[in-house]
Amino acid sequence: MIAFPLGATTTPAELARDPHPRLAELRAHEPVSWLPALNGWLVTRRDLALDVMRDAETFTVDDPRFTTAQVVGPSMLSLDGAEHTRHREPFAAPFRPREVREGFAEFIEEETDRLLTALEPHGAADLRRDFAGPLAVAVVTKALGLVDADTATVLSWYDAIVRAVSDLTAGHAADPAGPEAYARLRAAVETTVAKGATAEKGATVTKGATVTKGTAAEAEGTAAEAEGIEAEAEGSAVAEAEPSTTSLLTAAADRLTVPEVASNAAVLMFGGIETTEAMITNALLHLLRHPDQLALVRADSALLDGAIEESLRLEPGAAVVDRYATRDTTLGGAAIRKGDLVTVSLAGANRDPAVFPDPDRFDVRRDNSRLQLAFAHGPHYCLAAHLARLETRIALRHLLDRLPALRLDPARPTAPQGLVFRKPPALHVRWG
To answer: What DSSP string describes 32-94?
Structure first.
């Protein structure tokens, strides 16, 4: 007798194409199931998913098999405990709510308008490649402060790194373009840090003062963020530090080695572009597929945030997160052995009917959609979640305002796909 018959017949191709029917079966009958095709466990129930993501001592990311680390090296994404905090803290301050608004809102508005002004006369576009992707890349490039790297260059690096990580996750050899792209990113980080340090030295001599980094306020804010993620998921405010004018990468290099800065910059680039491009594209697809819900949002702009959260719930840009058991344990009745891969299905947890009634329905008025786990949970809650939400909100508002006849191109249908990262390969639309 097979202990996990559903898991035994679940294939990566099924999970990449249309995972939701199978995830619903697993959640109902095998909420922690062994999948031979993944050589690991798949967790699909929301409460059990939270148990895994909250308990970094039992379920860690710090394992040689962690795919992102194989491509870009150790970073805040692939470390736990004190090392995770050491890598994450130097990057946290610019991504807190107030600093995101003050540091990025105007730039996002301007970049959104610039992209739409270029697209508007054409009457049709692929909004993933022509709008969502370039916007996400521009914001990440600004956030990192990379010198000598334009958006097209950063996008090419990102594409190659994503392909390599996806190859490894699927059990294939990584596309060699991924490590090559990371080497170029690392060189750009080294150049940025070197130029930033030179500029700061000059500023120190001229002004007779040094720049203070890593203040107590920043440390407290980061600790609150790392230890109080559950409050964040419920909408609580996070402590905010005063804005800093210091380059993010240069400031981080005061507390990390340059290779460590580069690894974390790759993770921020990787997460910032992937998360936001997917958020914008998936939210647009959901709205355009549901004219009744789109009409509600057009009639009441306050529902736009609800539409974004619902889209994140139904189709998180990152469908899964991986952990590795540090000891023998039991989860949802399953006996997990030390060293086992434990994959949390964020897509499965987000459609748990115990939390979200009628879970497959897109409802911009759903009152608890913010309980979705698209940004993960616990110490690895997405550092740039506030920035991703701001970008998506501004992008959708401008699209709906400037293109009132926006609609899907019926000749070019699309749907989200991907085992790990889920979004449409293209989003062809028309207007006018």
So the answer is: EEEETTTTEEEE-SHHHHHHHHH-TTTEES-STT-HHHHHH-S-TTS--HHHHHHHHHHHHGG
Give residue-wise pLDDT tens across range 87-105.
999 999 999 999 999 999 9
Q: Do you know the residue count of the chain?
A: 432
Q: What is the pLDDT of residue 386?
A: 96
Which value, in Å, is the radius of gyration of the alpha carbons in the chain? 21
Q: What is the token pair recorded at 387? A: 């920035």
Whether 388 contacts 276, CB under 8 Å: yes
DSSP conformation letters of 400-422: HHH-TT-EE-TTS----B-SSB-
What is the rounded CA–CA span in Å between residue 204 and residue 295?
Answer: 55
Q: Per residue in 191-213, is it b (16+ CB within 10 Å) or e — as a string?
A: ebbebbeeebeeeeeeeeeeeeb
- What the block records as the tokens of 307 is 């539409």
**Which of 366, 326, 342, 356 shows the shortest CA–CA distance to 49?**
342
- Give residues with Cβ within 8 angstroms of 300, minimum separation 6: none
Determine the Cα–Cα distance for residues 24 and 47; give it in Å rounded to an integer.
Answer: 15
Contact 311, 290 (CB under 8 A): no
The whole-angstrom separation of Cα 150 and Cα 148 is 7
What is the mean pLDDT of the segment spanning 365-387?
97
Following CA atoms 311, 314, 320, 325 in sequence, which dihedral angle do they give, to the nearest 10 degrees? 120
Locus of tokens 């692939």:
78
Q: Do residues 124 and 429 touch, judged by C-beta distance below 8 A?
A: yes
Model-level pTM? 0.87
pLDDT band for position 267 (50/70/90)? Answer: very high
Distance between the two ends of the chain, CA-based, in angstroms?
60
Lowest mean pLDDT among 51-60, 204-213, 342-351: 204-213
Dist CA 202 CA 426 (whole Å)? 47
Q: Are 20 and 322 in contact (CB under 8 A)?
A: no
Nearest to 400 by CA among 338, 273, 307: 307
Q: What is the DSSP string of 226-278?
A: HH-HHHHHTT-----PPP--S-HHHHHTTTS-HHHHHHHHHHHHHHHHHHHHH
